């Protein structure tokens, strides 16, 4: 059985999870509905938000979430934009490998990965695990030194 803390990418590279940070996507929304414009702002800033939790890693990879129409049944259009929602939970982890990338003199490689899913992990949604395992690690991760 595979560990929930490890992933295999590029056929043979083992990645290990180093922490998991989670919060509600709309935790600051006190009134009104989420909109496509609000979601665009969330997605534009999510890498910066992730770096607050994993400040030692400059490489950030965001698995783009799907937006779904938010049910809005009123006589008039919603005045603040098109009601759309992202999955309920933002998840951020630092993945690392004991093998460097690109410059072979590093001691390992790492990548901060951000995704959205409906519920708090664990488990990590199967679709998300599949997308993590499809990351082209050697192109997007960074080497690190102890």
Label this structure with key terms.
146 residues, alpha+beta, 3 helices, 21% helix, 31% strand
Estimate the helix proportion, in percent: 10-25%
The helix-and-strand class reads alpha+beta
Shape designation: elongated
Largest sheet entry: 6 strands, mixed
State which percent range the strand residues make up: 25-35%
Q: What do these coordinates show?
A:
The protein has 146 residues and is α+β, with helices and mostly antiparallel strands. It has one domain (6-144). The protein contains 3 helices and 8 strands. The protein has helices at 36-53, 126-133, 137-140, and strands at 6-9, 13-24, 60-62, 68-69, 84-85, 89-97, 108-117, 142-144. β1 and β2 form a beta hairpin. It is elongated and about 65 Å long. The mean pLDDT is 88.
Summarize the structure.
The protein is α+β, with helices and mostly antiparallel strands and 146 residues long. The protein is 21% helix and 31% strand. The chain has one domain.
Secondary structure blueprint with pairings:
Layout: E1 6-9, E2 13-24, H1 36-53, E3 60-62, E4 68-69, E5 84-85, E6 89-97, E7 108-117, H2 126-133, H3 137-140, E8 142-144
Parallel strand pairs: 3-7
Antiparallel strand pairs: 1-2, 2-6, 4-5, 6-7, 7-8
């Amino acid at each position: 059985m595979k560990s929930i803390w490890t992933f295999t990418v590029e056929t043979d590279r083992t990645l290990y999870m180093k922490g998991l940070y989670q919060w509600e996507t709309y935790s600051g929304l006190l009134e009104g509905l989420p909109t496509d414009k609000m979601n665009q702002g969330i997605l534009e800033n999510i890498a910066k938000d992730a770096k607050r939790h994993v400040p030692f890693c400059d490489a950030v990879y965001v698995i783009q979430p799907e937006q779904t129409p938010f049910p809005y049944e009123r006589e008039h259009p919603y005045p603040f934009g098109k009601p759309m929602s992202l999955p309920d939970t933002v998840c951020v982890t630092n993945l690392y490998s004991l093998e460097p990338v690109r410059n072979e003199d590093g001691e390992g490689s790492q990548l901060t990965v951000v995704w959205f899913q409906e519920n708090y992990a664990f488990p990590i949604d199967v679709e998300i695990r599949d997308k993590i395992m499809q990351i082209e690690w050697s192109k997007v991760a960074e080497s690190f030194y102890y």
